[in-house]
Amino acid sequence: MPCLAQADDVTQPPDASAQQAGLVDVASLAPDIDIDMRYLGSNNFTGAPVPGYHANICYLRAPAAAALARVQQHLLGQGYRLQVYDCYRPVQAVQSFVAWAQAPADAAAKAAYFPNIDKPDLLNGYISATSGHSRGHTVDLGLLDCRGGACHALDMGTPFDFFDPRANLGHPHITPAQQDNRELLQQAMQAEGFEPYAMEWWHFSHPLQREQAQALDVPVH
Q: Which residue, 48, 112, 193, 207, has most beta carbons within 10 Å?
């Protein structure tokens, strides 16, 4: 998530669907991707379903969706699968994150997601008033290891949305195995043009159409 900035200007017809807004359901291109949209339920840093999420669907702009499908196909050949936590994010969800960050902290959320950062400081690099997710070219994800049959999540050193320096790329205080897992994901994503975000091992953006794409606020359903 880039640094705090002015809120996105939303450009879309009223009541537009995701498809009418130019978004593609990634599962239609890569049905083997594991979709685990964390903001649909309460298993996220806010502790509640996030406004704008009504279905477990990963939407992206067409170039990013096609590139992610190619990443999945490459990883399947090695015995891995992508596990997606977030894709297109409605502007209303982004705004709800900012409001949450400005509200008083609760001890359970702090212990689980930002133990070493004061809640207001999350607005300096972790939570932003604008997001590439709302433009449909950014995705948050991890890896599943399926080489033994049943799939299990690879250990990346921190959970998803753990707002802490340990989630930074190249952090020195993770194990060699955790670093190897991060590099496996990063190399697979970069091979298809995705760019990593240094503060979050799970966060990647696809550069095609990044400047032209406008923020959207159609719900995920």
A: 193
